[in-house]
Specification:
The complex is a heterodimer of chains A (333) and B (667). With 333 residues, chain A is an alpha+beta fold. Chain A has six helices and 17 strands. Chain A folds into three domains: 174 residues, no CATH class; 96 residues, no CATH class; 29 residues, no CATH class. Chain B is 48% helix and 12% strand. A five-stranded antiparallel beta sheet of chain B has the order 11-6-1-17-16. In chain B, strand 9 and strand 10 form a beta hairpin. Classes of the chains: A alpha+beta (333), B alpha+beta (667).
């Protein structure tokens, strides 16, 4: 990724200080130039208290009061190191974020690698402006935290900035580091309330002729793969000791369903997308073979999870004109 | 209650550990204050502490906002009742203790907790305003550890095991802070003197010598072994008979009590100093005076130098500008061989004053002597002769003399201690028209053989007389010293009053000697503690730094150099701490995989290389078929590898055995 000259790591920069690095691919190791530290409110208050103690020590010319003041001041200095250390060299990464429907909370799988032997206590994770969650990172291990994030808008979004922070051990200083991942997530439109599917089954003429409406016929056998429905297992062959085989049915007829943008002229854009989302889900549940017609694009008939995703993605990205969003043709698996 | 009743142990286990640490730290920090706190402060504080503890054990609820407000008003009222003020050292401590206990009542948020820990640290600091002994120092260190542990525990949040983690973390951090604190202690520029005048604490009870003397009123001289001051001589110490440490001088007698009208006055413009003629050589020494809440400073008779922030009265008393609340160290010079004011006759009115009704029999006796002798010196000798020849006894427990103390002592009882003798002697002298005054202070002091210094204790307190003889000036006369040893009740007193006579006594037993030796050891430790820790000041600081710089061949240092050295030192220590703490440990390859790879490499040299997709079991099978001679070793290694990798509970010593098995493997 091309970086601006003023955002080179290692050189102090106010924008970097306030906002962190630009988006970058994971994993991100929180190095010295990514971890910042400043006193907390308690820390400032404590500093003032130390000042009062110093004045008392001077006024009463009291050596042990001096000693106490100096010990506590030194403790603060040491606390800076320990707080800083508590965050330094944490390696953080975010795995693939499964798409969610708008309005649901998405779960960002954050993976924290404590590269050190000792446990790091009370490390806060936060996607501002969400509330932080506090975790202990066990030594020499990876910690997986599912960070819950609300979604408000359909489309493809860049994951927000992840802030790691800690005030351990004394609460007088707060160390923090930002991780901005070049990671996107997809939010499908919010599915509308239930509306019956626009079922106008269209019968597609098969070249092999009509072999009976409503019956799916046996077509062939193939080897079993994990995930195949058990009721399609050819048990007789299993009983003969020839391994697991699956009966494949090839129907010449399926209930075919076109979900068409133009069928909903009374609704506005988002409501149409919402309705179409609902229909895609219902059609998928009903195991229809369905296709999607949107202005300017069309997804041919199909079924299965990948097809469902393809349709939902097209709906999620409808109207978006950034190069990222693309059309239904650029579908990631 | 929802839960079934639990026993205390279960409740304790369930309680919030950080808050228990905090309660413990706060309670421990109060303990040294207990003897100086009035019951009016102690009782509510303990009650509030117990209340909070009971709340932590889920036994009671905390008070609401209204009750808290009421308690706050009550606390202020109680403090004011106890001290009649809310300011000053004593009242301030009382208020701090009550208020920090009160804060416990609303401690819920992390913010409150940090505030309470801060208050705890503050209480520790106030303890030092009263007591800076080694023991208190060590004890307070413990309190700081507990309070820091509480702070760490709060910030860790959860109370998961390991149980002592917070204590360890706090201890480790304090240990790491110690070298920096030491540098700051040694090199942080010390500003001498108070920044503003400290409030006079009238409630503070004085120890040591008081500013009046009433012989006959006290039936028992306290046998207080507390240290009054310690003295380090730079020159040869004077002989025991000359070790008179001058303190307050009394000039006015009201027939019962001796006092000095000057003492009531604030030190103003110094009087015309009396003429002082020194002879012989000067004695140089350093006095380390324990705080006694009064303004006297003590010096060997007769001081020829003034310590800082003090004045000299017309009776040659050293008076500090402010009461001695802290340990005070001053360099002194004295001449034991001197003549004081021989030229000008003293103030008749002041030094011949006697109340008209006082001591008629003593006056009669003095008049007889006056008629018999023309010379003042002869009268003085006659008076001493009187004490020597009449059956006078020295005792620490004289009878009470409620009537006229001087006459009763001189003619009826004839038993008393130094104050009785000095008082009676001065009355006799004044009755004979010889100017005289009572001097109080300390006599003697014992050498600490382990530390080459003298210890002067409260039990060494003494009173003697000074008379003015024309041509000689003020002459010190100690009437107590003329009492023959046979008439001294306590051998300990004999040692002090008549050291030569005491030598004839039987030596003390081994147990006494050992006990005294131990006492000397402890006192020696205290002395160095006082010298190097308690009384470490700007001058010692400069001396230390000059020593360091002259070692490097540098001269002319000032506070800026000191700050420079301090900053450099602190930076060095911090860097030394930070390097291991902040180092990035490049993760080593997983040890188990590394060892297994070594095993595969050994087989590969025999032409058996593992396919990327081949599992350890399949690979082992292939290897056994190829190398049947090594079958058992291959099986063993493969089994160990799988155990380490996949067993839910790998054997504890597994890795070690696995490594040695692979090392021994020779295909």
């Amino acid at each position: 990724m091309a970086k601006q000259p003023d955002t080179r790591p290692g050189r102090f920069n106010l924008r970097r200080f306030l906002q962190g690095e630009g988006p970058e691919p994971g994993p991100i190791l929180l190095t010295q130039n990514r971890v910042y530290i400043l006193p907390t409110r308690h820390g400032v208050f404590f500093g003032l208290q130390l000042l009062v103690m110093l004045v008392a020590a001077v006024n009463y010319n009291n050596s042990l009061a001096y000693a106490l003041t100096f010990l506590l001041s030194s403790l603060c200095l040491v606390a800076i190191l320990h707080t800083y250390r508590n965050l330094l060299h944490v390696q953080v990464d975010v795995a693939h974020i499964p798409p969610v429907f708008c309005g649901d909370n998405l779960s960002a799988p954050v993976r924290l690698d404590n590269t050190r032997k000792g446990t790091r206590y009370a490390v806060g994770l936060q996607f501002p402006p969400q509330d932080p969650s506090r975790v202990d990172l066990p030594g020499d291990q990876c910690f997986h935290a599912g960070m819950s994030l609300p979604t408000q808008q359909r489309g493809r979004h860049r994951l927000g900035r992840l802030t790691l922070h800690t005030t351990y051990p004394l609460g007088l200083f707060r160390a923090w580091g930002h991780a901005q991942f070049d990671r996107h997530y997809l939010v499908y439109p919010r599915p509308d309330d239930y509306h019956p599917l626009p079922v106008t089954p269209s019968y597609h003429l098969n070249l092999s002729g009509d072999r009976g409406v409503g019956s799916d016929d046996f077509a062939t056998l193939r080897h079993y793969h994990p995930g195949d429905p058990l009721r399609h297992v050819h048990w007789k062959i299993v009983a003969r000791g020839q391994g697991l085989h699956i009966k494949q049915f090839g129907g010449d007829r399926a209930e075919e369903l076109w979900l068409n943008w133009d069928d909903l002229p009374t609704l506005d854009t988002e409501a149409r997308l919402s309705r179409l989302t609902r229909w895609v889900m219902d059609a998928d549940t009903a195991q229809f073979s369905y296709g999607l017609k949107l202005p300017g694009s069309q997804i041919p008939l199909g079924h299965g999870p990948a097809h469902r995703h393809r349709c939902l993605k097209a709906l999620a990205l409808f109207g978006a004109n950034t190069p990222d969003t693309g059309t239904a043709q650029t579908v990631a698996a | 209650m929802k839960h079934p009743p639990q026993n205390l142990h279960q409740r304790l286990r369930r309680a919030n550990h950080p808050r228990l640490w905090l309660l413990a730290g706060l309670a421990l920090s109060f303990i040294p204050h207990l003897p100086r706190l009035p019951l009016l402060i102690i009782a509510p504080s303990v009650a509030l502490l117990v209340w909070r503890l009971a709340h932590e054990l889920a036994l009671v609820a905390l008070p609401g906002r209204f009750v808290r407000g009421l308690l706050t008003v009550l606390a202020l009222a109680i403090t004011f009742t106890a001290y009649h003020t809310l300011f000053g050292r004593e009242a301030g401590v009382g208020l701090l203790v009550v208020m920090s206990c009160l804060k416990l009542m609303e401690m819920q948020q992390p913010r409150d907790i940090t505030v309470v820990v801060g208050l705890g640290y503050f209480v520790v600091a106030t303890v030092f305003l009263f007591d800076q002994s080694i023991l208190i120092g060590l004890y307070m260190m413990l309190v700081v550890v507990v309070l820091t542990t509480a702070l760490t525990a709060f910030n860790r949040g959860t109370a998961q095991p390991p149980r002592w983690l917070n204590l360890r973390q706090a201890g480790q951090m304090l240990l790491q802070a110690a070298p920096i604190a030491l540098l700051l202690f040694l090199l942080f520029p010390r500003i001498p003197g108070p920044l503003w005048n400290l409030p006079d604490d009238s409630t503070a009870a004085g120890t040591g010598l008081s500013d009046s003397m009433s012989p006959g009123k006290i039936s028992q001289l306290s046998n207080n072994n507390a240290v009054a001051f310690r003295v380090q001589f730079d020159t040869k110490p004077p002989p025991a008979t000359l070790r008179y440490w001058r303190g307050p001088v009394f000039t006015y007698f009201d027939s019962k009590t001796w006092s000095n009208p000057d003492h009531q006055r604030r030190p103003g413009a110094p009087y015309q100093q009396p003429g002082f003629r020194a002879a012989g050589t000067a004695t140089d020494y350093t006095v380390t005076l324990e705080p006694h809440q009064q303004r006297w400073l003590f010096a060997l008779d007769l001081p020829s130098r003034l310590p800082l922030r003090s004045t000299l009265s017309r009776e040659f008393e050293l008076i500090s500008k402010s009461p001695v609340y802290q340990l005070r160290r001053y360099d002194m010079q004295s001449y034991t061989d001197y003549q004081l004011d021989p030229a000008s006759p003293p103030d008749q009115f002041r030094y011949l004053q006697l109340p008209n009704n006082a001591a008629p029999r003593a006056r009669q006796l003095a008049r007889q002597w006056r008629n018999r002798f023309a010379n003042d010196a002869d009268i003085m000798q006659q008076a001493l002769q009187y004490f020597r020849q009449q059956p006078f006894y020295y005792t620490r427990k004289p009878p009470l003399m409620p009537g006229d103390p001087v006459d009763e002592f001189l003619f009826d009882r004839q038993r008393g201690f130094c104050e009785h003798y000095a008082s009676a002697f001065v009355v006799l002298m004044r009755a004979a028209r010889i100017p005289a005054r009572v001097v109080t202070g300390y006599l003697g002091g014992e050498t600490n053989p382990l530390g080459d210094y003298f210890i002067v204790r409260q039990s060494d307190a003494h009173a003697w007389a000074e008379v003015w003889l024309s041509g000689q000036g003020w002459v010190r006369v100690d009437p107590t010293a003329v009492i023959p040893p046979s008439r001294v009740e306590d051998s300990q007193d004999l040692q002090r009053i008549a050291p030569e006579a005491a030598l004839t006594l039987a030596p003390p037993g081994w147990a006494t000697r050992a006990w005294r030796q131990l006492g000397f050891g402890v006192d020696n430790m205290n002395h160095y503690w006082n010298q190097w820790i308690i009384n470490y000041n700007d001058q010692q600081q400069m001396a230390l730094l000059s020593g360091l710089f002259s070692y490097l061949g540098l001269k002319n240092i000032d506070w800026r150099d000191m700050v420079g050295v301090l900053a450099g030192g602190v930076t060095l220590v911090l860097v030394a701490l930070a390097l291991p703490l902040l180092r990035f440990r490049r993760r080593r390859r997983d040890a188990i995989t590394a060892i297994y790879t070594r095993f595969c490499r050994k087989l590969a040299r025999r032409g058996l290389s593992r396919n990327p997709a081949e599992g350890p079991q399949d690979f082992a099978l292939r290897a056994i078929l190829a190398l049947p001679g090594n079958a058992s070793a291959i099986v063993d290694i493969s089994r160990r590898y799988q155990q380490l990798r996949y067993a839910p509970r790998p054997p504890t010593d597994g890795l070690r055995h696995f490594r040695s098995a692979v090392r021994r493997f020779r295909p």
